[in-house]
Write a structure and sequence with these properties.
The chain is α/β, with parallel strands linked by helices and 321 residues long. It folds into 3 domains: 11-89, Winged helix-like DNA-binding domain superfamily/Winged helix DNA-binding domain (Arc Repressor Mutant, subunit A), CATH 1.10.10.10; 91-166 and 272-305, Periplasmic binding protein-like II (D-Maltodextrin-Binding Protein, domain 2); 168-270, 3-Layer(aba) Sandwich (D-Maltodextrin-Binding Protein, domain 2). It has 13 helices and 11 strands. Strands 4-3-5-11-6 form a 5-stranded mixed sheet. A hairpin with a 2-residue loop joins strand 1 and strand 2 (62-65).
Amino acid sequence: MIDHNTRLPPLNALRVFQVVVRHRSFRAAADELTVTPQAVSQQVKLLEDSLGVELFERRGRAIEPNENAILLAHFVQAGFEELAEGVRRVAKTTVRNRVNVNASPYFATRYLLDRVADFRSIAPEADLRLTTMVDLPDFVADDVDVAIQWGYGTWKGHEATLLLRDYKVICCTPEFARQIDTPQTLAHLPLLHPVLSPELWRNVLAHLGVTGRAEKNDIRFQDAATMRRGTLAGLGMGLISTIDAAEDLKLGKLVAPLGLDVMKDMPEAQVPGFYLIVPKAHRRLKTIATFCRWIEAENWLATDDREFRRLQDQSKAGKAP
């Protein structure tokens, strides 16, 4: 219930506060808002005076939101999302039918694009707009309705629905594989890590019982495509998604010296996947809700299952994939 006696702070001060919390910097917030850092500082001071509390710890040029700021930021974010949803609801029809989808580049190219026509067949009036980004977008600043991202479903403040587990295959070049006789050999070889999940290799090695690991000569990659190229270039041991692994193993460009099912017995919480991420308020819009229902109902595993299962059958029969 709303307390109508509560005097709300100025809307602009709350908007500036939200940007400052996201960037942890007056200057970066000023750049986004195209104002001066002094103007940002004044708006934050206005908000603090209005609330009667301090919101940031100032350490020289650096600032850090305190407990009050973290709590307030949660509600401010939710409030702006509700406000944006209200604007969408009263906007003209051509805008209401728009669905702004931001997807992981890998999911977009390997899974989503081949099925966009299926969505259009059930929602021909939808104005679908697709952008790609490796990291989770800012739903308000980037004008995104729904996102599809790679990770572990741990995004706070949004609904996250698993679409597909991204089981990896430990791959390397045939030349590199000559150095490998047991999983313990991995303790002494360069590994190629995904930047978004520094714990992935650590969990895989623990599952294999590998000990005494040093990260000498390891390399970190921002996206799956670059990780694959690095593996093909012989830079180290790569964790390759099943679609890519099936292609490269079939052509003999890569091999899987420890088998194809290394991650299958790992705890699901340690296996990354592609998730549909939606602010709760966004599902209230009919076209967005239709897109969400469609993408959640699709069997995304079918895209890469057939060829990879053929390779698994060959492997179990004792033939090199």
